[in-house]
Specification:
Length: 228
């Protein structure tokens, strides 16, 4: 766990410039950690943690009082899904291992976890960095949202509202750009965007609310991860 929290600090704090309030210097720790399951990928040679996800189950979300996503979005329209819905968060991979294998291992472990615990829905905040070519700007995030709302928007009954919206109407949404690799991966799996992005000033990101249901998993990945 401490290795995972140290990796998170290095990626979010040092690499991405997030402002992290923590009880242990050099580690990313928040109140949700003690309530989450933590998926870890270890390097076989060094046994160092090189990839991690945390998963908040419905029962543990009730214990802590909310999900992390609840702090960024009004999730009222998802209430019918909560009994079988997990929240994914704090996904990161060591920079020396970002070749796809680590994230595939994490997704495989996640699929197994979902099936074993009879859960079928995943939500989370997928982050888009506000820093682009050395300049802090929301134009890239606004452009990605403009693209995805036309191609990957969830049905209206699942739409959520950001508590601190990114002011997309005042930004340039015409930039030709692609979503970050992790978001592209989610979309290939069959995930949907639940609404406009929120601004997270601590992490200096625009966060897209996303939902993935096992029933919507692309057939290619269904066979790979679920064996069916």
């Amino acid at each position: 766990m401490r290795q995972a929290q140290k990796l998170r600090f290095e990626v979010f704090g040092l690499e991405m410039g997030a402002r992290l309030s923590t009880t242990v210097p050099g580690h990313d720790i928040d109140l949700f950690d003690d309530f989450c399951e933590h998926l870890l990928v270890l390097d076989e040679a060094s046994q160092a943690v090189i990839g991690t996800y945390r998963v908040l189950t419905p029962a543990q979300a009730q214990r802590v009082g909310s999900t992390y996503s609840d702090t960024e979005f009004d999730l009222t329209r998802l209430r019918s899904l909560r009994s079988r819905m997990v929240e994914l968060g704090r996904s990161c991979v060591h920079p020396d291992h970002r070749h796809g294998g680590v994230i595939m291992a994490l997704w495989g472990a996640l699929a197994d976890f979902m099936v074993r615990n009879q859960l079928d829905t995943m939500i989370g905040c997928a982050s888009i960095p506000m820093l682009h070519n050395g300049v802090v700007s929301g134009d890239v995030a606004a452009s990605i949202w403009h693209q995805l709302r036309q191609t990957h928007l969830a049905p209206i009954e699942y739409h959520v509202r950001p508590r601190l919206p990114l002011p997309v109407e005042r930004l340039d949404s015409s930039i030709a750009t692609e979503p970050p690799a992790l978001i592209k991966g989610y979309l290939r799996l069959g995930a949907r965007v639940l609404g406009a992005p929120a601004w997270d000033p601590d992490f200096n990101t625009a966060d897209l609310p996303m939902l993935m249901r096992l029933g919507d998993l692309h057939p290619r990945y269904r066979k790979h991860f679920l064996g069916a």
